[in-house]
């Protein structure tokens, strides 16, 4: 699992924190590491007369070498041989292309993408949308999650689309010797209706809420059986809350990693497609592993 790890970097403090954590993980797993720095071939400068196009300046080319050399020094200090790739192109397509020959991407939710020219989180959000392999987001060094992680939080809406992340999380738990907690959020159905608030009922009929609760109970029971069959210590929690992201962030405080999928049936179906995803990635107190619900180019 994770025999080849890709680590995009731009030399920013946030990116360096992710690299440091990724190198510790690679050392524990015995993984190969590739550092990637993308250098756009053109710069667009908006003016009153239109965009002026300039080739990358020598300072940026020098910065590429400095960033990769810094990453190489970090790898050497960790006792890891790492490949260096400085590629011409924009960050998102460069990362996605390189991901084809790797098993895992380790990056920060902030910083990667060339500093001030890229809005905070934009590169990460696009990588999450399209990556064919899992992405481990490390927000800051002081998250202090141990390696290997000993406790994994698996948010799930118990639907079939979310099962791939669950299966991946159970494999990780086997590899790391970790315990898992399945977390489902029983969200008030009225908050899911796409209508103006004035037309949405404040309360859900008790019988409808009970049907939803039973559905989640049955789903969590099935997941507990999967964990038992895999020989993994597991617990489950069903919470009734309206704010899914805040619930996940709060629960993550008691775990080392948060493992979640990109798609689901209910609240999880919207989770990694918009603002909720960014909120979890940016504010979760521990590393977040995002598992794509699409076939991977390499088995994990």
From TrEMBL:
Keywords: ATP-binding, Nucleotide-binding
Gene3D superfamilies: 3.40.50.12370, HUPs
Family listed: Belongs to the universal stress protein A family.
Cross-referenced PANTHER family: STRESS RESPONSE PROTEIN NHAX, UNIVERSAL STRESS PROTEIN RV2623
Record's protein name: Universal stress protein
Pfam families: Usp (PF00582)
Domain UspA: 1-139, 151-292
Molecular-function GO terms, alphabetical: ATP binding
Transmembrane regions listed in the UniProt entry: none
């Amino acid at each position: 699992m994770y025999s080849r790890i890709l680590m995009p970097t731009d030399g920013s403090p946030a990116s360096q924190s992710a690299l440091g954590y990724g190198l510790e993980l690679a050392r524990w797993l015995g993984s190969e590491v590739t550092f990637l720095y993308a250098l756009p071939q053109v710069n667009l400068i908006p003016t009153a007369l239109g965009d002026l196009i300039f080739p990358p300046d020598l300072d940026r080319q020098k910065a590429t070498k400095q960033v990769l050399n810094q990453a190489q020094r970090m790898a050497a200090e960790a006792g890891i041989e790492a490949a260096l790739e400085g590629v011409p192109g924009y960050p998102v397509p460069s990362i996605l292309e390189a991901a084809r020959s790797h098993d895992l991407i380790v990056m920060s939710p902030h910083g990667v993408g060339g500093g001030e020219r890229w809005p905070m989180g934009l590169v990460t959000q696009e990588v999450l949308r399209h990556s064919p392999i899992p992405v481990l987001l490390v927000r800051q060094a002081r998250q202090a999650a141990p390696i290997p992680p000993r406790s994994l939080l698996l948010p799930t809406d118990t639907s079939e689309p979310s099962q791939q992340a669950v299966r991946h999380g159970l494999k990780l738990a086997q590899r790391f010797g970790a315990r898992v907690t399945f977390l489902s959020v029983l969200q008030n159905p009225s908050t899911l209706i796409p209508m103006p608030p004035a037309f949405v009922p404040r309360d859900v009929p008790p019988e409808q809420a009970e049907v939803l609760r039973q559905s989640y109970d049955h789903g969590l029971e099935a997941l507990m059986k999967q964990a038992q069959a895999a020989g993994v210590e597991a617990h489950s929690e069903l919470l009734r809350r309206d704010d899914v992201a805040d619930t996940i962030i709060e629960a993550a405080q008691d775990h080392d990693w948060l493992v979640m999928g990109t798609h689901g049936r209910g609240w999880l179906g919207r989770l990694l497609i918009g603002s909720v995803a960014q909120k979890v990635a940016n504010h979760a107190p521990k590393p977040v592993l995002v598992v794509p619900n699409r076939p991977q180019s390499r088995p994990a």
